[in-house]
């Protein structure tokens, strides 16, 4: 009877329809995956094409110096390159690192509290409130930073600049502190990347085996010892991955950073600075000097390359940490 059913026309038709549906589904999913790759490649190619006139005129290596002076640009090839991007790379990296130094410990603490310490009735509301931070527009963070955060950071900034005489900290916290600074931009960035880092950390921490946590408590471990011995070691690779994703988010942030960081070559985190996104935002509408707009595309291409490099390195490190833990 079973053989007859399998051999019937209806069964063969259903089998053919299933194969067609599976094949169509596989092609659609492959097209979706290729679309992501195509968008990334197309973006990189477009930026490179628009940056090529400046790259071919000055040479790629000539952009790696700290002085950005579009008013000194000339159409002749004999003049040195006035479009140095090192200060913007430095400002981008330092501002993002300040944000991660603040955001990652807070995100880990919030994730541990929500998953292991808070009452069950509060877990969903707390998670939703943290996630809502990601829905606030960047320009709102910028306005809040200018009119609320900078005045509040005044005492902290002046306190940090008072330690400028201490070795190693002197250059980092050298003042005076006037508000618009790498530090202020880093604090706002920390708040902006907190939702994504917290969400990933929360999911990672929640996957720690319940049996291991209960075993640690059964052997007399305190709550902190249980978290330190049974939860955090299992979560290291995921937490690092969350930090890398947050760092990538911080690299590309534009409006809020532009409103808070000022526009200068930074001398320590308490002074004004510039980032790669902020210089593009500030100057692309008034780029009327020779190769000025083309050089901004060089900055954009460098930002894309830096973000991809950080993410690739981060994924490699996460993979090695995961293998070590396993």
- Strand portion: under 5%
**Helical content (DSSP H or I, runs of 4+):** over 70%
By DSSP, the count of extended strands is 0
Chain-averaged pLDDT: 84
Shape: flat
> How many helices does DSSP assign?
12
Q: What's the story with the biggest beta sheet?
A: none
Give the topology string: H per helix, E per strand. HHHHHHHHHHHH
Radius of gyration from the alpha-carbon trace, in angstroms? 26 Å
Low-confidence stretches: none
Folded structure, characterized:
It is a single chain. This protein is an all-alpha fold and 326 residues long. It is 74% helix and 0% strand. It is flat and about 70 Å long. The two termini are 50 Å apart. The mean pLDDT is 84.
What's the structural blueprint in terms of helices and strands?
Layout: H1 2-7, H2 9-58, H3 86-117, H4 120-132, H5 138-161, H6 169-172, H7 182-205, H8 210-218, H9 223-252, H10 255-261, H11 276-283, H12 292-325
Summarize the structure in short.
The chain is mainly α and 326 residues long.
Give keywords.
single chain, 326 residues, mainly alpha, 12 helices, 0% strand, flat
């Amino acid at each position: 009877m079973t053989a007859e059913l399998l051999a019937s026309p209806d069964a063969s038709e259903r089998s053919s329809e299933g194969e067609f549906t599976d094949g169509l589904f596989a092609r659609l999913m492959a097209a979706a995956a290729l679309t992501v790759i195509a968008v990334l490649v197309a973006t990189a190619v477009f930026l490179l094409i628009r940056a090529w006139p400046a790259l071919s005129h000055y040479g790629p290596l000539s952009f790696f110096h700290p002085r950005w002076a579009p008013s000194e640009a000339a159409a002749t090839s004999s003049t040195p390159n006035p479009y140095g991007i090192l200060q913007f790379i430095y400002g981008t990296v330092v501002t993002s690192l300040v944000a991660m130094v603040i955001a990652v410990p807070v995100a880990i603490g919030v994730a541990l509290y929500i998953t292991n310490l808070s009452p069950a009735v509060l877990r969903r509301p707390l998670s939703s409130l943290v996630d809502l931070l990601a829905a606030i527009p960047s320009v709102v963070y910028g306005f809040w930073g200018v009119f609320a955060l900078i005045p509040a950071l005044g005492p902290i900034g002046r306190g940090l600049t008072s330690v400028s005489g201490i070795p190693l900290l002197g250059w980092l916290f050298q003042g005076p502190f006037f508000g618009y600074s790498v530090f202020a931009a880093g604090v706002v960035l920390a708040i902006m990347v907190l939702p994504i880092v917290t969400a990933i950390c929360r999911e990672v921490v929640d996957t720690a085996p319940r049996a291991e946590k209960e075993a640690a408590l059964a052997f007399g471990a305190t709550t902190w010892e249980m978290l330190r011995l049974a939860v955090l070691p299992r979560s290291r690779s995921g937490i690092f991955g969350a930090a890398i994703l947050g760092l990538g988010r911080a690299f590309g942030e534009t409006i809020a950073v532009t409103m808070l960081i000022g526009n200068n070559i930074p001398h320590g985190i308490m002074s004004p600075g510039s980032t790669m996104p902020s210089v593009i935002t500030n100057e692309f509408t008034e780029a009327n000097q020779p190769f000025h707009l083309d050089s901004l595309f060089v900055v954009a291409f460098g930002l894309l390359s830096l973000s991809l490099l950080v993410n690739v390195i981060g994924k490699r490190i996460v993979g090695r940490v995961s293998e070590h833990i396993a």
